[in-house]
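Q: A small favour: would you put together sequence and C-alpha cells for a protein?
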Amino acid sequence: MDYTAITNEPGLIALFVIPLIWVVISYLTYRVGWRDMQMAYPAEPGTVTKRLGIVSGVIGESTYTNALVLRYNENGLQLRPVIFFRLFQKPVFFPWKDIREGKHTGYLLGQRKELVLGQPEQGRLVIRPSMFAEFETYLTMYAIPNHRTHRQSTPV
C-alpha cells in the first residue's frame, strides 16, 4: 500500500488533525475546571431559562472568551459553553444564593460587572451592565452582598 498519497495531501491530514485537536482541547478544558463545577452545580434537564447572551469568564483554570451562553430564571443562572466547546461540558445552574457581585471593571468598550459563582468559588463571569440589570432584582431578593463591602465572620 502506498502511503505517500495520504502524507502528501495536506487536506486529508487536516481532515483528521483538526477534529483531534478540537476533542483534546474540549477534554482539557473540561478536566481543569468545568468538571468540578458540573458536579457541584448540575443543571436539571428541562429547566426553562431566558437567554441573555454570550459572556466571558474564568472557570477553574480555563478562560472562556466570549464562549459561554448565559441564561437565567427566578431560581438562578444557567451557564453552558457555546456549541463548539460542548462536547464534554454539560450546562450548570447556580442558585442565586451562591452568586455574588464582584468588582466593576472598565474596558475600552465600556463598563463590565463581575459575578463570582459558587460557594466555594467555582468561577467568575464578566458581563455587561445591561445583562446584569436583567436579573439584578433576583440578586437583591436573596440579599447577596457585594464581596468588596462584605466581610465574612470568622469563628472565634
Q: What stands out?
A: Residues 147-156 have pLDDT under 50 and may be disordered. The first helix runs from residue 4 to 7. The chain is about 30% helix and 35% strand. Strands lie at 50-59, 62-73, 76-81, 92-95, 99-107, 110-117, 123-127.
